[in-house]
Amino acid sequence: MGDKSVIARRKMQVCAGAIRLNSNKSLDDASERAIVERCRQNDFEAFGRLIDAYQNRVFGFIKRMVPIPEEAADLTQEVFIRAYTNFARFDGRCSIRTWLFRIAYNLCVDRSRRMQHAPQTTDLYPIAGGDEPVEVADHRWEPERVALDVELMQALEDAIGSMSEKLRSVLLLHDREDLSYEEIADVLRLPLGTVKSRLFLARAHLQKNLSVYLKGDAATI
Amino acid sequence: MNRNHSPKVDEIDRKLSDPIQTFISEAVKGLPDEQLSMAWRSELNDKLRLVRPVSKASALLSFVWKPTAGLAMAGCLALAFVMLNSSGPVAKQGSNLEASLVSAHRDAMTARDVAGEGIGIAELRETTQGSFEETWTEVDLGSL
Q: Contact A221/B20, CB-based, under 8 Å?
């Protein structure tokens, strides 16, 4: 069990580095400023570049907040439509990334209120029973990426889906989207201390759900 | 005391720096990226075009040309209306002319009937300055 957890941890580290390196298509500051200025002048092409830079990240965030993929895709479109129609209201005090995620979060909250429940579990994949390993093909993986323990990633996705919306939003915005504590506080309209507390609790929740993979690490740390 | 450096804040910062917390953070960072399809993007582009604001140049163009086109059309309609209704006064003048021509013709016919060819009505009137009965003699009446 210890060997498995060590291997899982190393695989995660390698995969995390590889994937983030390959998927980091965000704009640099100068390019973003230029694009924002053109968007203010209703430059449709410039806004298209903005969509190219952020569509997958916004979708990734919403998809882990909203359990239904089709609805997540619709909400992602709504994010950019609202951004386009309300671009005049973007005053530049925060980054465009923060602004987009704020819109995304608000839409997710509105959707939850409409549904009158917070999304709890995803259960998109069959839950493994006992100690039997379950091999499930993941169509999202590209061949050139580092191979990863599918079972571990599925457990992680399930654990993220099982936590409350308040904890999940902070976890995804900080650990997945690299927003700072201040930016997250701005997006979620929370005090800084609350952001940090929720982040700690979210990670603790994952730690508890992934304890099978972490037993060996807990002993060695 | 600075709120950002209170004991409570320091404690939470320390907890967040825990190796297990860092490990979980890296695991979340390693989640696969989501990819959206071209169909999704095409649909979004269509929706954005619907809410696309009209440019100032286009707005100015429509602000100038639309009223101009409307006025031109109204002018054409008015002109057509005037031209269609203009036959009324012309007909009246024609009727007056027609009446005078008819009258002249009748006088000419009368004059021919009375005095023969070549005698106009004016000449007939000159030769008959007195009453009709006074100018005629028995010889004239006998010749009839």
A: yes
